[in-house]
Amino acid sequence: MRVLIHDRDITISDPEKEKYDRVIYADGRYAPCQGCFKCWTKTPATCVLKDSLQEMCRIIGLADELVIVTENWYGGYSPAVKNILDRSIGISTPMSTYRGRQMHHTLRYGGCSTVRIYVTGDVSDKEKETWKLLVERNALNWGASGHEVIFSDLPDDMEGTDL
User: Fold this and answer.
1) What is the pTM of this model?
2) β-strand 92-99 against 102-107: which pairing, if any?
C-alpha cells in the first residue's frame, strides 16, 4: 500500500492520486495525541480518540511506501504532519527488539520498504543536517529498508509533479 501524507493546500491531479492507496491531508482538523498509550495496550493499533486519525496506526503500519510532504518548521515536520505521526505510535508495540544494532520497539505490522520525505520552504544548511538525521531515525523506527529526504519547493498545483 502506498500512502501520501501532506500539509499543503494543493491540488493533486487524479493521475497522481491514483498512484496512492491513501492520500491524507494534514489539515489540523483532529485532536492531538493525548499520550495515553492505549493504542499500545488497551486498543492495539486503534486510537481511542474518535476522529479521522483513529486508524492512522494501521494505515502507516501497513504502508509499503510512505511519502510525506511537509513544510519545514525549524528542521522538523509541520505541526499538522507531526500530529499525524504522533497519533501513529501504535504501529509498534511496548515490547523491544534490536534493529540496526540498537534497541527499538517491536513493529506490529513489519516495516515499510521506503520512506520519502519532501521538505518545502526555506531550509538552512543546519536544518538540512537535522532533517537528514530525523528521517534516518524515523525510517529505522518504522522498519523501512530505504529512506530519502528531498528539499524542494513544490508548486501549488501538483500537476506533472512526480511524488
Assistant:
1) 0.90
2) antiparallel
- pLDDT averaged per 10 residues, the chain (length 163): 88 78 90 92 92 92 94 95 94 87 88 91 95 94 93 63 64
Query: Which residues lie closer than 8 Å to 153 by C-beta, 6 or more apart?
Result: 120, 121
Asked if residues 66 and 60 have their Cβ atoms less than 8 Å apart, the reply is yes
Cell reading at 138: 524515523
- C-alpha 124: how far from its chain's center? 22
Residue 91: count of CB within 10 angstroms of its CB: 27
CA distance 163 to 160: 9
The rounded distance, in Å, linking the Cα atoms of 149 and 132 is: 7
